Amino acid sequence: MRQVFLRFYLTVVVCFLATSLLIGGIYKQLIERTNQRYLTDIFKSTVSIIEEELGDLPPSLWHDEASRLRGKLPVPVQIEKLGEYSLTEENQKSLEKGDIILLLDKGLYIHRIHKTDQMVVLGPIPFLTDLDNISWLDFLALFLMSAALGLPTWLWLRPFWRDLLQIIQQSRRVGQGDFAARVSLDESSALASLGVTFNGMAHDVEELTASRRAMIDAVSHDLRTPLARMRYRLEAIKSGADSAAQVAAIERDLGQIDELIEEWLTMSSLDSPQMQMNIQPQPMIPWLNKLANEFSLDGKPPELINQVEQNDPYMEIDSYYLGRAVSNILSNARRYGGDTIVMTLSWQDGQASLMIDDNGEGIPQEQRSRLLQPFTRMEGSRNKATGGFGLGLAIVAMIARGHGGSVAIDTSPQGGARIVLLWPTPLRSLS
């Protein structure tokens, strides 16, 4: 803190001294002009008095008369010959014309007595010589004022430095892998906004690290299982088992690995900052019917309800990616839900809504937000009957964000799960 304090304090002092000297110089110029006009007026009056007194006397008595008047006047006065002082050419001409000349370096006013070779000298006047001099009291005053600036500088810098040290300390903890580190600053702190930004960054890093760790665990599990089965089946073929059945099983395991890789690549492409959705107007009813037919059960596709006022609504979507999101939701409904799936399309105030309900067991409240994270599944779903990699709803959430919308999990009127896709879009009809 000492180094920071000295730098800040010296900067303040230098700025203060520069400002003081500038203002002092301007003020001095104004005072000098005022005082010189004032003294000039006084000297004119004094010269008039002296010349009136000397007017009736012979020049030989002027010195004695000046000595007598010296006690009656506020400043010293004397009579001297022209040429007594070294003058500039300009001042010499002015003096000969009868003007009053100021010799600032000597503190004197001089004036030629009309039609004589003598002049009246008024001074020296100490005030004139003191204008350009800086006394030790002036230096002492500047020093004391500069020293006094140290106290407010220290009082302001101390809490600033304390908060800065806290941010530095917590940053080191984050750098060492403790992503739960947070800073706690008062709202009045000058670094409060930086603290909020730091906490947000630490929270994001913590979530990202946890997500990556979960991804590694999930991928290792989902890859290890089919690989272990394939290794077992290869050994069975070597032992003389039915090769056709084992090869078919190996192909299923390879298909599972391909599916995992495809889901993973999809999520990676959606997470890329360069990813741009290809938003185009799309006739929603035929498009949704086509997707629903792909998930028919015993020839019965999911039911589609159109709550939009138009019979053939057009909405702006990326048909590939939003189709992927709807397919993931329908796939989960078929896998974990019951035998009834209902899709409801609606539009209000510039926002489209697609609700997909099933009559399964539903999703517990405490697990809903967690299931929107990659490689997260409900307890009991990690088995051979249901399968899945925990990426479906995470991909749905990323696609919804790509459309400027969101996804929510709720309870279906049928008792199962309700997945709601929301995204902004204009509504048009070509009928």
From TrEMBL:
Indicate where this protein resides in the cell.
Cell membrane
Enzyme type, top EC level: transferase
Q: Which residues form a coiled coil?
A: none
UniProt superkingdom = Bacteria
Q: Which SUPFAM superfamilies match?
A: ATPase domain of HSP90 chaperone/DNA topoisomerase II/histidine kinase (SSF55874), Homodimeric domain of signal transducing histidine kinase (SSF47384)
Q: Where is the signal peptide?
A: none
GO terms for MF: kinase activity
Does the UniProt entry include the keyword Transferase? Answer: yes
Q: Which UniProt keywords apply?
A: ATP-binding, Cell membrane, Kinase, Membrane, Nucleotide-binding, Phosphoprotein, Transferase, Transmembrane, Transmembrane helix
Query: Its topology with respect to the membrane?
Result: Multi-pass membrane protein
**The Histidine kinase domain, residue ranges:** 218-427
Q: Among its keywords, does the record have Disulfide bond? A: no
Reactions this protein catalyses: ATP + protein L-histidine = ADP + protein N-phospho-L-histidine
| Residue ranges of domain HAMP in the record | 158-210
A Pfam entry, by short name: HATPase_c
Q: What is its EC number?
A: 2.7.13.3
Coarse class of the primary localization is membrane
Xref: SMART domains: HAMP, HATPase_c, HisKA
The record's annotation in PANTHER family points to: SENSOR PROTEIN CREC, SENSOR PROTEIN RSTB
The molecule here is called: histidine kinase
Species whose genome carries this gene: Deefgea chitinilytica
